[in-house]
Specification:
The chain has 27 helices and 31 strands. The strands form 9 sheets. The chain has an 8-stranded mixed sheet, with no helix packed on it. A 5-stranded mixed sheet has the order 16-17-18-20-19, covered by helices on one side. It folds into 4 domains: 4-263, Sandwich (Immunoglobulin-like); 301-433, Neutral Protease, domain 2, CATH 1.10.390.10; 439-542, Aminopeptidase N, middle-beta domain (Immunoglobulin-like, Sandwich); 739-869, Alpha Horseshoe (Zincin-like fold). Helix 5 (370-387) crosses helix 6 and helix 26 (837-851) runs antiparallel to helix 27 (858-868). It binds diaminopropanoic acid (DPP) and zinc ion. Zinc ion binds next to helix 3. Belongs to the peptidase M1 family.
């Protein structure tokens, strides 16, 4: 199939004033009746055919203003020729039949555990009825549902309900991708919310019977999100009801349908005994994310799917701010950067690299990526850093007033910043249009006689598929200076780099260290001073690879003294990666300096336990493979694995005297609470238990597993045991305790795969996929096993190539049923070019094998093709 291109965008030929839908639900034969008020779009003068999208629909009857339509649908839709359309407004009516029970792709209207639900983003509505399925066609919807099921939901406000029917009306014009319908035997966990201006909103979380007791945390997160958006962005909710439904079979995390969010049950249901602290954190973040879409996505939507980052980047940015406010900005930032590097930098450095705003796609579902979401959020963070908080707030206010009710573009988004600040953002826009992670190198110069300290930055923007050459990016570089005593002598200062190479000079003055003009008549003589220590790219102020020739002593100094928590962590991280890289490439052993520095952080009670837990986490194997590859090495997965284990053992021996004390002191008194402070203590306690298990043979972890009264510690202790090759009895106990709980059992599947020995990983896949509870049709279960495979780096890349073959086998099995999830999971192969020729050949063989399969989906076909290059 040929790609769809941004440059080919044309406004719609017709707009819609009103949509009325009636659903007569039936698993095999649902009838959908539609009545759509069209009018010609004045932006497209002249008379045009009206193209309606439609896939897998059986057309029963259609008419224009009551005159039967004789045109017949093709495989992707129905064209109403201009000749049969009136000059002015007209009503198109249609009746179609669809089979939700046969819909395994989970796109459009489908069934999950006897309940009907929908997923229409990006292009699922065309599997429900004939419609111009594009986001720049927005309309108010009225929906009637006919079914014997007790709970019948759609978007907007309820109009009425009776025996076997319900009606809904959504007054806010919306694109079809935000349409939703749910019908099932559900129970609600309910609460009430009053908006700042006094609107009473009924809040409901709808779940299957038996799950109603697991909704309290999601509801609490929703209420906090609604309040936060009022105070942080001045955005209020705009309907009388807000419904959330939890669904077990869902391709994504959740979906922001207007007034009726549909969630993967994994991101709703939680009790202390079934959900980990990470689960609680993700529930809070995703509930917030989908709620925030009500303004950034729904009230203002995207003109076309190339603009996906307009809603996703901004909404991720907003949910990150929210989590920072709720928990800890420092910890949140570190976690976000870890994810960004692991997922987005990886994507940006391989064959799947694409700009934050792509300019072509074959299948839009393949562009719900780390680049669009996470780098999209980073770009907004940079914009905010460059213009400052006050102008960011003014620009957002302008965005909301100027574009409310519209389908907007990245150009519109940048224009509100330009109009607010008077800045020219044409260079900044490259962040949206050019792919690849910039490399930023820095060199330092110190003139003792003049007291001038100069930092010279050079940026390199590597080529990516289809983009050999790139211009200089605008890079905000947050900088602080410390003196050798460890005192901060220049607080965080934002430097804006705009050239390929650029110097910034600093001098000690009567008012402390300041940026100065390096040369020329403005130069004032500086005060006598000593050379400062620079803390560069504080808070990870730009998504770049910073390359800095720093001594281990300077890194240890920053780890001990930096006032910026991100850079403090980053210094420790860089030290650990240097040590590990030398262990892998030169067979070195970890030196006492690094181990001592790590031990000081571990026992420093003045530091947040969550921060200490992050500092104790060793660099991951995939991260090391990526880092070594970037440094010009060919990573050997087996060596990386062995070296990382040796590093863990060395840390365990060095920390051994402190570990029992740490572990015991961090036990939480009283009942479990999911809040951040307690979660941070548990994270450090489990980090200590992990190292302790390497020196005590697992005795404490066994006891911790038995005594755990929450899932965080139960699964955490089990992971410690599996990590040292034990835990078989505990796995069996876990299975017999949780066998009936799908969400908990997903953890059981994943753990075994992640902790399988490299040579036993393929067998683990075979054993787990043969388990009676493995169900490839359930995306969570498929992700729990097959999706976890690349997380076991040494196993996945074992020299036998068995796991490559197994992954390809499973992708090909899933593709006919659920192409979207198959395509998503195929990205495990995107790092092939890092490895040796044998592995490259084996992976490429599997990609070629996939590509050769007749009838392969557009989704998986596009991915395999792009990865082969
Ligand atoms: N728009 C959804 C989200 O990111 C994904 N389909 O929230
Ligand atoms: Zn989103």
């Amino acid at each position: 199939p040929s790609p769809i291109r941004l440059n080919d965008y044309q406004p719609p030929t017709h707009l819609i004033d009103q949509v009325a839908l009636t659903f007569r639900l039936d698993p095999q034969a649902t009838r959908v009746l539609s009545e759509i008020r069209f009018r010609p779009n004045s932006a497209r003068p002249g008379r045009h055919d009206l193209r309606l999208d439609g896939e897998n629909l059986t057309l029963i009857v259609a008419a224009v203003d009551g005159h039967p339509v004789t045109a017949t649908p093709d495989a992707t839709g129905l064209t109403l020729p201009a000749a049969m359309l009136p000059d002015g407004p007209f009503t198109f009516t249609a009746e179609v039949e669809i089979a939700p029970a046969a819909n395994t792709a989970l796109e459009g209207l489908y069934m999950s555990n006897g309940m009907y639900c929908t997923q229409c983003e990006a292009e699922g509505f065309r599997k429900i009825t004939f419609y111009p399925d594009r986001p720049d066609v927005m309309a108010p919807f009225r929906v009637r549902i006919e079914s014997d099921l007790p709970v019948l939901l759609s978007n907007g406000n309820p109009l009425g309900q009776g025996e076997g029917w319900a009606e809904w009306h959504d007054p806010w014009p919306k694109p079809a991708y935000l349409f939703a319908l749910v019908a099932g035997d559900l129970l609600a966990h309910s609460a009430a919310f009053t908006t700042a201006s006094g609107r009473a909103v009924a809040l409901n979380i709808w779940v299957r019977h038996g799950d109603e007791g697991r909704c309290a945390y999601a509801m609490d997160s929703l209420i906090r999100s609604m309040r936060w958006d009022e105070t942080a962005y001045g955005r209020e909710y705009d309907l009388d009801v807000f419904n959330i439904v939890a669904v077990d079979d869902f391709n994504m995390g959740a979906m922001e349908n207007k007034g009726l969010n549909i969630f993967n049950s994994k991101y709703v249901l939680a009790l202390p005994e079934t959900a980990t602290d990470d689960d609680f954190g993700r529930i809070e973040a995703i509930i917030a994310h989908e709620y925030f879409h009500n303004w950034t996505g729904n009230r203002i939507t995207c003109r076309d799917w190339f603009q996906l980052c307009l809603k996703e980047g901004l909404t991720v940015f907003r949910d990150q701010q929210f989590t920072g406010d709720m928990r800890s900005h420092a910890v949140k930032r570190i976690e976000d950067v870890l994810t960004l590097r692991a997922r987005q930098f990886r994507e940006d450095g391989g064959p799947l690299a694409h700009p934050v705003r792509p300019d072509r796609y074959v299948e839009i579902n393949n562009f719900y990526t780390a680049t669009v979401y996470e780098k999209g959020a980073e770009v907004i963070g940079m914009l905010k850093r460059l213009v400052g908080d006050a102008d960011y707030a003014r620009a957002l206010d302008l965005y909301f007033t100027r574009h409310d009710g519209e389908a907007a573009t990245i150009e519109d988004w940048l224009a509100v910043f330009q109009d607010t600040t008077g800045r020219d953002l044409s260079q900044f826009k490259r962040w949206y249009t050019e792919a690849g992670t910039p490399r930023l190198t820095v060199t330092e110069d110190w003139q003792a006689d003049t007291g001038l300290f100069t930092l010279t930055f050079a940026q390199h923007n590597p080529p990516t598929p289809g983009q050999p050459e790139k211009g200089a990016k605008v890079i905000p570089i947050a900088l602080g200076l410390l003196n050798p005593n460890g005192d901060e002598v220049m607080p965080t200062t934002m430097l804006a780099m705009t050239a390929m190479t650029q110097s910034f000079a600093f001098q000690s003055t009567a008012d402390g260290w300041q940026q100065v003009v390096a040369e020329g008549p403005d130069r004032v003589p500086g005060a006598v001073s000593t050379r400062p220590i620079a803390s560069i790219l504080r808070g990870f102020s730009a998504p770049v690879l910073l390359e800095r020739d720093t001594s281990p002593e300077e890194r240890a100094f920053l780890l001990a003294h930096d006032t910026d928590p991100f850079n403090k962590w980053e210094a420790g991280r860089a030290l650990a990666k240097d040590v590990l890289a030398r262990m892998i490439t030169a067979g070195a052993t970890p030196g006492p300096d690094w181990l001592d520095a790590l031990a000081r952080v571990a026992v420093d009670d003045s530091l947040d336990p969550a921060f200490r837990a992050l500092a104790l986490r060793l660099p991951g194997e995939d991260d090391m493979a990526q880092t070594l590859h970037a440094a010009g090495h060919v990573p050997d997965p087996a060596r990386i694995h062995a070296a990382r284990r040796a590093m863990g053992d060395a840390v365990a021996r060095r920390l051994a005297p402190h570990l029992p004390g740490l572990f015991d002191a961090l036990a939480e008194p009283g009942p479990f609470t999911p809040e951040a402070r307690a979660a941070g203590r548990r994270a450090l306690r489990l980090a200590a238990l992990g190292y302790l298990s390497r020196v005590d043979g697992g005795a404490r972890a066994e006891a911790a597993f038995r005594q755990a009264d929450n899932m965080t510690e139960e699964v955490g202790a089990l992971a410690c045991l599996l990590d040292i090759g034990r835990g078989q009895a505990e796995l069996a106990a876990f299975e017999s305790r949780w066998g009936a709980d799908r969400l908990v059992m997903d953890k059981w599947f994943t753990l075994q795969l992640l902790h399988a020995a490299p040579e036993a990983t393929a067998q683990a896949v075979e054993r787990l996929t043969a388990h009676p509870a493995f169900d490839m049709k359930n995306p969570n279960r498929f992700r729990a096993v097959i999706g976890a495979l690349p997380g076991n780096h040494a196993g996945f890349h074992h020299a036998s190539g068995d796991c490559y073959r197994l992954l390809a086998d499973w992708l090909l099995k899933l593709d006919p049923l659920n192409p979207q999830t198959a395509a998503r999971m195929s990205t495990a192969f995107d790092s092939w070019s890092r490895y040796d020729a044998d592995r490259q050949g084996m992976i490429r063989d599997q990609l070629r094998r996939i590509l050769a399969v007749p009838g392969l989906s557009r989704d998986l076909g596009e991915m395999a093709g792009r990865m082969l290059g």
